[in-house]
Design brief:
The chain has 192 residues and is mainly β. It contains one helix and 14 strands, in the order ββββββββββββαββ.
């Protein structure tokens, strides 16, 4: 993957320490990979996958903790990796993988949903891999929020939604809904 895509913090790790190979996102548990910096439509469910390995048997238990971005919601799903826990108060997904043997790779997957009305245009989730409660290694994947394309008569929530089309557009409440319309003639559905 390119340098501006997913990233792993490379640190010289002590022998017997687990490391993150990569963090990925997929359209589902057996779905298509979502490339880093790809725009995701608000309301979409997708799956994070974290791959961890150890060159030598770890010196103790390995844990993964992933704090969800404020625009993400954890989804309970039977296909989530067994043993995964989610703490709604801290927004952290975690799992204890136990000792990882030399050359062994472990994969953790869990489902999330992007808010229907995300506050941020980009988000990044970081998985922190800890060995024996001490040494940490991280990996992350940046993703973007797909921005709606507004046009004349599109549904809207605010004037800012519509002003990107044309500075003369407003979000007009027609009584049956809110629509992007010309401020000089908001009742005209063709924006003339």
């Amino acid at each position: 993957k390119g340098a501006d895509e997913c990233s792993i913090t490379h640190t010289i790790l002590p022998i017997g320490t687990a490391e993150c190979i990569e963090k990925e996102a997929f359209t589902g548990f057996n779905g298509t990979e979502i490339n880093p910096n790809t725009a995701i439509k608000p309301g979409t469910e997708f799956v994070y996958k974290v791959t961890v390995t150890a060159e030598k048997t770890t010196t103790g238990s390995v844990t993964i903790v992933d704090e969800l971005h404020k625009d993400l919601t954890f989804i309970q799903d039977p296909s989530n990796t067994s043993g995964l826990t989610y703490n709604a108060a801290t927004r952290k997904v975690s799992i204890d993988l136990g000792v990882i043997n030399s050359g062994q790779t472990k994969v953790v997957q869990f489902k999330v949903q992007l808010s229907a009305n995300p506050q941020d245009k980009t988000f990044k989730n970081v998985a922190v891999i800890t060995t024996n409660g001490d040494t940490q290694h991280t990996c992350e994947i940046p993703l973007k929020v797909e921005q709606p394309k507004y046009s004349c008569n599109s549904t809207c929530d605010t004037n800012e939604n519509c002003s990107g089309i044309n500075g003369d557009y407003i979000c007009y409440d027609s009584g049956s809904g809110k629509y992007c319309r010309l401020s000089s003639n908001p009742t005209n559905v063709s924006c003339n």
